[in-house]
Predict the 3D structure of the following.
Amino acid sequence: MGKFIIANWKMNMTNAGAKDFLDEFRPQTKNTVVICPPFTALTTVGAADGFAVGAQNMHYAENGAYTGEVSAEMLVELGVGYVLVGHSERRTKFVETDEFVINKAKAAISNEIVPVVCVGETKEEYQSGKTKDILSRQLSGLGQLDGEFIVAYEPVWAIGTGLVPTMEEIADIHVFIRGITKAPILYGGSVTDKNAGEIMAIPNVDGVLVGGAALCPNKFTGIINAAN
Ligand code: PEP
């Protein structure tokens, strides 16, 4: 299986900023590269060649009274092939539950969008040895998914902090998740062009989900090249 290298731009990049990024970004790889920009830059990013476009969020309902939300059908219309669901920032800042996350994943699959189901423990949960319990709970709905999906393991304490678990810890958690699902399992949390090669060489690490380092064309290209 090839690797997945997925960029999560979060609430960064105007449409003009996305165009500037794309002017400099020419990935050369047989692996799968996906960029998840804000909704406002989906069309611009989706029009570029050499990689796929993903969304950072969607609602599970088909349509209706959900002010500010976007449905799977609306994303499909823009050529979106992937969607992040359950990112820790959505779970904490927007109070998304495991049930809500799995409902989004189901709706994505029904519309032929591949959901990237994000899971991970907080610093307190890590320090008190509860990581696997938390992951078991967050992944308990995967059996309801009938179609292609991806899991992204992102320790919350590693996101945007420069902190990364040891390679042994990543290996151990990925073996644990592999016991739950055969789907591709990505690692996310402070991945850079310096550590991406070592992380992607770990067994059961099928790629990476990248935040900050994916905002710079050179750094993101370095991460992609580390998988080649
Ligand atoms: C993320 O938010 O999914 C992420 C991995 O961020 P960063 O790479 O900046 O830690």
About this structure: Residues 8, 154, 159-160, 188-191, 209-213 surround phosphoenolpyruvate (CB under 6 Å). The mean pLDDT is 97. Strands lie at 4-8, 32-36, 52-55, 82-85, 114-119, 150-153, 185-188, 207-210. The two ends are 12 Å apart (CA to CA).
